[in-house]
């Protein structure tokens, strides 16, 4: 049975988190005592790029937007994190106003930075897993950047949705609902909201996705690839 008290729920989560598999129980319990669980309402700003902001945030449930605000006050969403992902101090290309924001209801595990570093120093296998996760994430962002340079908008949107399904779905055929607006997708792929909405409407008409003002549901993940040649026969 899943526990209900905050401390017991946090311990239950620690025991099942892939990143911490293999740690001795006494180390895991010590790290658990240095951590807390916190719930965030939709739209709540979780972390900012402040000099003293160095906690480790791990997503237990829900989704978190990462982004920044430019000098003109425009907000850009860079990526979406889901259960099992983690982040720390935010900095996107030197932007001062980097942020993490709850995209829907979110539960986060917050770990004191020195406690996390202490465990990493004692257990190189954990350090290696952290580096592997970060390296994979860097490759993902590099791939997305290459897409902006070499692919058209339609392919960038399809690949973005495919990537989210691969990262967040529990089963290959799962109908995945993600808290994403058309504006956020446009920001991630580098196009206008109107262009993103036009291509998303074609995907909806084909039965591959569905959406509301705040959510996108990937109904047919295989169709994102299998139906690609016929989805956009008519060029804009």
Total count of domains: 2
Give the name of the CATH architecture of the largest domain: Sandwich
Total strand segments: 11
Tell me the fraction of residues in β-strands, as a range: 15-25%
Spatial order of the strands in the main sheet?
1-8-3-6
Radius of gyration: 19 Å
Task: Report on the biggest sheet.
Answer: 4 strands, antiparallel
CATH topology of the largest domain: Jelly Rolls
CATH-assigned homologous superfamily of the largest domain? Jelly Rolls
How would you sum up this structure, described in words?
The protein is α+β, with helices and mostly antiparallel strands and 236 residues long. Helix content is 43%, strand content 22%. It has 9 helices and 11 strands. It has a 4-stranded antiparallel beta sheet with strand order 1-8-3-6. It has a 4-stranded antiparallel beta sheet with strand order 2-7-4-5. Strands 9-11-10 form a 3-stranded antiparallel beta sheet. A hairpin with a 4-residue loop joins strand 10 and strand 11 (216-218). The longest helix is centred in the middle third of the chain and has 27 residues, at 124-150. 28% of the residues are buried.
């Amino acid at each position: 049975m899943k526990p209900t008290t905050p401390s017991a729920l946090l311990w239950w989560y620690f025991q099942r988190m892939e990143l911490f598999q293999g740690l001795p129980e006494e180390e895991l319990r010590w790290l658990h005592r240095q951590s807390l669980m916190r719930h965030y309402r939709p739209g709540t700003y979780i972390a900012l790029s402040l000099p003293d902001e160095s906690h480790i945030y791990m997503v237990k449930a829900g989704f978190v937007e990462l982004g920044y605000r430019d000098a003109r006050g425009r907000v850009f969403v860079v990526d979406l994190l889901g259960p099992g992902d983690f982040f720390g101090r935010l900095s996107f290309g030197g932007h001062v106003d980097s942020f993490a924001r709850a995209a829907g209801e979110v539960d986060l595990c917050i770990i004191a930075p020195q406690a996390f570093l202490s465990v990493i120093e004692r257990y190189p296998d954990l350090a290696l897993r952290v580096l592997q996760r970060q390296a994979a994430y860097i490759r993902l962002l590099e791939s997305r950047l290459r897409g902006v340079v070499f692919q058209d908008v339609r392919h960038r949107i399809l690949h973005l949705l495919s990537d989210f399904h691969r990262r967040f779905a529990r089963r290959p055929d799962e109908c995945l609902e993600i808290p994403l607006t058309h504006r956020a997708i446009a920001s991630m792929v580098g196009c206008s909201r109107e262009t993103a909405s036009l291509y998303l409407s074609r995907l909806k008409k084909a039965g591959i996705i569905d959406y509301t003002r705040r959510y996108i549901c990937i109904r047919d993940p295989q169709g994102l690839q299998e139906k690609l040649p016929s989805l956009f026969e008519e060029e804009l």
